[in-house]
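Here is an idea for our session: we take a single protein and study its fold together. Start from the sequence, derive the backbone structure tokens from it, and show both lines together. Once you have written the record down, we can walk along the chain together:
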Amino acid sequence: MKLKLKRFDEALLFSVQRNQSKRLSIAMLAFTIMGNGGLIWAILSGFLIFNPSTSRYGLYMVIALLLCALCNNVIFKSLVDRDRPCDIYKNVPLLIKRPFGSSFPSGHTATSFACAVTLIHMDARLGLIALFLAFIIAFSRLYLFVHYPTDIIFGILSGAAIGVIAIQIVRLFLHFVPISYFMFH
């Protein structure tokens, strides 16, 4: 099973590498920068949290980002400690500086999907746009040769689950402490 996953990872990863172009490389760099540290999602959550009509959704995103940092970047990455493809195949030139930490799971992907799930909960159309952006950010990590496909797949699954959990945590919290308490006190 492990050998089949490795073959799958390598076949898909090198297929992406064979189909690169200068324009696409520039776009993938831009999308991966948006995902650095959950940047685009943190900015969006800031806009949402300070608008009284959407503050609950901003809080969903903040909790999702914090849970992703804890679960994926602290727990899973240290438990699995998987080398990145760029560490194994050093002859493949990188378009970005080698990211810190291990490969599994993709933090960019997990945070993007966690936040997209919370936005789907807020507004289906906005959520679909966020989901599309999340897929592009995830693909950029393959394109830039810093994650394997299975890192991305697990990032999608864990991120989506964390998004759902974040919504439930905030709902439970707001059941006891209304958000208006924070806005006006």
